[in-house]
Write a structure and sequence with these properties.
- It contains 4 helices and 4 strands, in the order αββααββα.
- A hairpin with a 4-residue loop joins β1 and β2.
- α1 crosses α4.
- With 133 residues, it is of the alpha+beta class.
């Protein structure tokens, strides 16, 4: 099963709706299961520097099939994989990236959000992921 462009656009629409509701402009990246870009949106006013961060969060979530903040736990001093964030050339290990799965648990890809505070990015990412239909 692959993520469709319709699903990717629904994910972005759900994320944008939440971002507007909380008053923050964000960048939203949706990647497929192979960690390749499926769809992207930069809301009006979203920070240019956050484009790569959104892409990095989505790629991190896709490569490890887990939330970016969970990957970050492995990287902390005393964590199981200190220095992990230095691998793959793109890892972002703070909140705002989530894996996307089908109802049967099949991994479909990931979403990454950046542009607000980490808590806002996580909130928007969760809303975006809920837009998967």
């Amino acid at each position: 099963m692959q993520i469709s462009v319709h699903q990717a656009r629904s994910i972005i629409a759900a994320g944008e709706a939440r971002a507007q509701a909380i008053g923050v402009a964000v960048n939203i990246a949706v990647l497929d299961a192979g960690a390749q870009l499926k769809a992207f949106s930069r809301m009006d006013g979203a920070l240019l520097g956050s484009i790569d961060i959104a892409l990095g969060k989505a790629k991190t979530a896709a490569l490890f099939q887990m939330a970016t903040e969970t990957v970050g736990e492995f990287c902390k001093p005393g964590g199981g994989s200190p220095g992990l964030e230095q691998t793959n050339g793109v890892l972002v290990v703070f909140g705002g990236g989530l894996p996307l799965t089908a109802p049967d648990g099949t991994f479909l890809g990931a979403v990454g959000v950046s542009g607000g505070a980490v808590a806002q990015d996580m909130d928007v990412a969760q809303a975006a992921a809920s837009g998967l239909d």
